[in-house]
Amino acid sequence: MRLFSAFRLEQTRPEVFYGALAQDSVQLLDEWVKFDDVLVLDVGAGPAEFAREFRAAGARYVPIDHDVNVPSVHDGGVVATAAALPFADGTADVVFSSNVWEHVAEPERVADELVRVTKPGGTILLSYTNWLSPWGGHETSPWHWLGGDRAARRYERKHGHRPKNLVDDTLFRVSVRQGLDWAKSHPDVEVLAARPRYLPDWAAHLVTVPGVREVLTWNLLLILRRRPDHR
Questions:
Q1: How far apart are CA 132 and CA 52, in angstroms?
Q2: What is the pLDDT of residue 1?
Q3: Is the pLDDT score of 231 beyond 60?
Q4: What is the CA radius of gyration of the chain?
């Protein structure tokens, strides 16, 4: 409930939402990762709240974003695109990517890149908002259910400017099934958890129900482990 309440403030008070989300991210990973001196790459870092929480937990945190102007990049960050990370294979103990997948044109390529830079035995957290969720259109929601272009035009009439997230430009129609299919088919990945991000653990079964999961999941959370390299 705390995270969902904060989520409602994402547009008006982003520091509240991202602060709560950063705390939740560290807590989620704490079950799988001991943060003392581990290297965390945050792909699509954006706001600075994640740096504060990961570093407080003891991690060596490196934010990565394509936008040179975002706060996280100003604090020891790297400017790069998620589909071509400037790191060697097996660099990081933990690779973290929250709410980026829906903003890239080739999400599977980005996910493959997350796996590539993760050490064998390392952990990946990937979460994203799917298109058919009530928040799939981001600031134009829920009117995106009537079409992304129509939702954008309505937003512009109401606010006097175009939305930041434009479908097929800066926002893409990703699905829950798309992420699950990628994770289950990737030969180097073991799925540790797959569930709705903003719902309690008991709601994990929703992601197994086709159709229903696309509306009720809101945001898919995948926690993955890169398999040891036996070659």
A1: 32
A2: 63
A3: no
A4: 17
Q: Which of 101, 99, 122 is nearest to 111 (CA)?
A: 101
**Closest-CA residue to 99 (of 21, 9, 20):** 21
- CA dist 103 and 105 (Å) reads 7
Length reported for the chain: 231
Q: Supply the DSSP symbol for 162.
A: -
- pTM of the full predicted structure? 0.90
Distance CA 204, CA 191 (A): 13
C-alpha dihedral over 84, 86, 87, 92, to 10 degrees? -70
Residues 69 and 149: their CA atoms lie apart, in Å, by: 28
Question: What single-letter amino acid sits at 77?
Answer: G
Q: State the DSSP code for 85.
A: -
Sheet holding 60-65, edge to edge: 78-79, 60-65, 39-43, 92-98, 118-129, 219-226, 189-196
